[in-house]
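REQUEST FORM: STRUCTURE PREDICTION
Request ID: SP-0412
Submitted by: Lab K.M.
Chain count: 1
Length (residues): 183
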Amino acid sequence: MKVFRKCIVRVKSSSPKVIFDCIDEPIWGVWEGLFGLANNEAIAITLSEKDEPSFWSDGVEVLDEERLLPTARPTSTDRPTKEGLYVFRSMHTVSQNVEEIVRLSEQAWQTFETDGNYVAEPVGLFKPEGPDDRCAMWLLTWYDGFESWQRSRSPHPDAKSAFIKRHSLLTSTSAIATRLLKP
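STATUS: Completed
RESULT:
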């Protein structure tokens, strides 16, 4: 079974695009930071069938690596392609809350994605492959730009209600603003 391997990497050259040549696994996506990552760091998600850590060439240093399973999204391994703002949100919780967080997210997305005040699409909601009692889930959401992200802070009341319930299940959360790199 393929898992999504999320790596935060430090790039040793001046161009983060070197990442595309530094890994022995298919790349699902690479994002460089706008806010929340150092200027020489990126987030790379690969598709893996191996249990051992991924092999990166000398062009990058792996700072963090997690094996993740998709929940409600993505529903395929097709790569994200849209230009715009991608926000990675870590959601720390106890493992028993994972399925409820997925349910509340799906419920919220029904009106979140169709709100006419902004353009947004949740791309992925991931859980750890083997969670401990406490775990970090990752939500990846695409926006057409920062203005949409800002307007989405006041979503449809139904989405807001589900997001508030979801937030109550978290011990902490943080976000990293990025943009997608293309090979």
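NOTES: The chain has a mean pLDDT of 95.
Reviewed by: T.R.
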